[in-house]
Specification:
The complex is a heterodimer of chains A (330) and B (328). Chain A is of the alpha/beta class and 330 residues long. Helices cover 33% and strands 24% of the residues of chain A. Chain A has 12 helices and 12 strands. Chain A starts with a strand and ends in an 11-residue tail after the last strand. Helix content of chain B is 31%, strand content 25%. The radius of gyration of chain B is 21 Å and the shape is globular. In chain B, strand 7, helix 7 and strand 8 form a beta-alpha-beta unit. The chains are: A alpha/beta (330), B alpha/beta (328).
């Protein structure tokens, strides 16, 4: 396989009463090796469930109804959606790891840091001796720049700050050398000076290891700081995808443009902020045509009748909008 | 704006809030969390004053202590020249007709069992004795101001989106026509595109109703946009204060400089050179000696560890609390 991860036609649905409701609609993603890929969008656009689907962590009644997720693992190519529960468990942490939004709630409050790091090691390397595990844990803590690692190993989560806990989460996620790290809003719960520390750390770790990162966030600033490729999600679809410099410099889709204008007009000349009218349509209330049509300044007649396809507007720059291509989604 | 004395609506002097730490069966007080430490500032009429800082810096406690939702340990708050700390609880309750509070989380601050009509008419019933028609017209007038329609009066909070809920919270705070409002992180629970709608609404209403606002936020971009002057807090103390544009263009305090540079830029071709601060904010239960920031400061010297710096005027209306402010 050329890419590390290939997602094709991924559809995720949920049940509402007796109705099946689509939450994610035909998403294709290619994650290259040693790449940092950003997924950006507002709440409810489907960015987190995409990550959860990769790891087989979708909570009932959410389920993958169609599609494939192929992954180039350490021992050959695998179809993640067809793995048994046991195979999936052994892939989590060793092949693909995840860090979550709230470091304060993702660690177990009744175990100290050493026990929680041990657990991750023991699961994948049962033959490892106690002193080896301790050595490996200390090394990881040093790599994520924890001051006084010995003392930290004996600490419980409530004794540590949010920034330190997120470093420990990253250390645990990387302790078995996974090739893919999913980071779901890793800095949203942190203060801005701590966020700067964590983003710098993630950038450094990516340079040192061969790990690819999928960064899921609502913050375009975080994307600009850390990612090479970006996909913009809206209402369960990708609406635009490009290299980060291309995306910020030659923004094509009106939604992306609106998001960028909403954040960059802060502190700008005009007192009046730019706003995108209306709200994101929730799953189950998507129109047949372009899902952004009701909020779009440039909405045309045909936008309400047919769904535009995701087409290449410039080399490597994909956009789902009739302003750039006439092509209709099949 | 002229510098006349009666232009000042709110004057906070040496405000201090300590929370006791209690231990054991007898609830013995073993120490204090120094949440707010000697904070002084003034807010003029029709001015938006922003308090900005990271979590745990005491900005929300300061906001609550102004309205005496939390009783200050020491210090005074003067509102229209009147010392609020000498008022009885009943007098203070009446005062809150003119001083209101907008809370951070609209999901939690609206009673789920009250419909919009009850939510909006309650403050009027508490503070005024209005005939039913006037009550109705005041509520409908406020609804119109926040961009909602009277047919939504019968609905309950769970039937609204986060942005609409925050509009209702704002309406509830402003319906008594206060002259002063504390807004505690009013947009941080909302999505980016909704944030802008709510900020526009707040700025419009602030102009229209001639409000003075203390706007508490950790979002530096939002603060720059909405406020006329700003106070930067760290570990319970004001580190720097001044006109917003001046502080953002020429940050004088090393903490303000680091804070401003930590904001991710929206330009991937210009990955900004952050000043990355080492370590974490110290525990406010045992704050460091001297300058509260000295444990993380690049310019720290011996005097910083020993003596707490006072706010000093470094340019007109621009104050900073740092021993080395002229040398950087």
């Amino acid at each position: 396989m050329e890419n590390l991860l290939e997602i094709r036609d991924l559809k995720i649905t949920t049940l509402r009463g007796k109705n099946t409701v689509k939450l994610l609609d035909k998403v294709d993603l290619d994650i290259k090796k040693k790449c940092s890929f950003g997924i950006v969008g507002e709440s409810g656009c489907g960015k987190s469930i995409t990550a959860n689907a990769i790891l087989g962590l979708l909570p009932y009644p959410l389920q993958v109804s169609e599609g494939s997720i192929r992954y180039d693992s350490k021992d050959g190519e695998k179809e993640l959606l067809k793995l048994s529960k046991k195979e999936m468990r052994s892939a989590r942490g060793r092949e693909i790891s995840m860090i979550f939004q709230e470091p304060m709630t993702s660690l177990d409050p009744i175990f100290n840091v050493e026990m929680q790091m041990d657990e991750a090691l023991t699961f994948h390397h049962p033959q490892m001796s106690k002193s080896e595990k301790r050595e490996r844990s200390l090394e990881m803590l040093r790599r994520v720049n924890i001051p006084r690692p010995e003392q930290t190993l004996a600490s419980y989560p409530h004794q540590l700050s949010g920034g330190q806990l997120q470093r420990i989460m990253i250390a645990i996620a990387l302790i078995n050398d996974p090739r893919l790290l999913l980071a779901d809003e890793p800095t949203t719960a942190l203060d801005v000076t701590i966020q700067a520390q964590i983003l710098k750390l993630m950038n450094d770790l990516k340079e040192q290891n061969d790990t690819s990162i999928i960064m899921i966030t609502h913050d375009l600033g975080v994307i600009a700081e850390t990612c090479e490729e970006v996909a913009v999600f809206y209402a369960g679809q990708i609406v635009e995808q490009a290299n980060v410099i291309e995306l910020f410099g030659k923004t094509a889709h009106p939604y992306t443009l609106g998001l960028l204008r909403a954040v960059t007009s802060l502190g700008g000349e005009s007192r009046k902020l730019y706003t995108i009218p209306g709200i994101v349509p929730p799953g189950g209330q998507w129109s047949q045509g372009c899902r952004f049509a009701d909020r779009c300044e440039k909405c045309m007649e045909k936008c309400r009748q047919a769904m535009p396809a995701l087409t290449e507007a410039a080399p490597g720059h994909y956009c789902r909008c009739f302003l750039h291509s006439e092509e209709v989604e099949a | 704006m002229s510098e006349k004395k009666n232009d000042i609506l709110l004057d906070v002097r040496h405000l201090q809030v300590y929370f006791p730490i209690k231990r054991g069966l007898m609830k013995r007080v073993v120490g204090h969390v120094h949440a707010v430490e000697d904070v002084s500032f003034t807010v003029k009429r029709r001015e938006v004053f922003a308090l900005v800082g990271e979590s745990g810096c005491g900005k929300s406690t300061t906001g609550s202590a102004i309205l005496r939702l939390i009783e200050p340990t020491a210090g005074q708050v003067y509102f229209e020249g009147e010392n609020l700390s000498t008022l009885s609880e009943e007098q203070m309750r009446l005062k809150r007709r003119d001083m209101q509070f907008i809370f951070q989380n609209p999901y939690a601050s609206l009673n789920p069992r009250m419909n919009v009509w009850k939510l909006l008419s309650e403050p009027l019933k508490v503070h005024f004795d209005l005939p039913p028609q006037e009550l109705r017209s005041r509520v409908e007038e406020m609804l119109h101001l926040i961009g909602m329609t009277p047919d939504q009066l019968e609905r309950y909070p769970h039937q609204f989106s986060g942005g609409q809920k925050q509009r209702i919270s704002i309406a509830r705070a402003l319906i008594t026509h206060p002259s002063f409002v504390v807004a505690d992180e009013p947009v941080s629970a909302l999505d980016v595109s909704i944030q802008a709608q709510i900020l526009n609404l707040m700025m419009e209403l602030q102009q229209e109703m001639e409000l003075s606002l203390v706007f508490i936020s950790h979002d530096l971009n939002v603060v720059r946009h909405i406020s006329n002057s700003v106070g930067v807090m760290y570990l319970g103390s004001l580190m720097e204060t001044g006109d917003t544009e001046e502080v953002y263009r020429h940050p004088a305090h090393p903490y303000t400089q680091a804070l401003l540079s930590a904001v991710p830029s929206h330009d991937p071709t210009n990955k900004s050179k952050h000043i990355v601060l080492e370590g974490d904010v110290p525990n406010p239960a045992s704050p460091p000696s001297g300058c509260p920031f000295h444990t993380r400061c690049r310019y720290c010297t011996k005097v910083c560890e020993e003596k707490k710096p006072e706010l000093q005027e470094i340019a007109p209306h621009h104050f900073a609390a740092c021993h080395h402010v002229g040398e950087m």
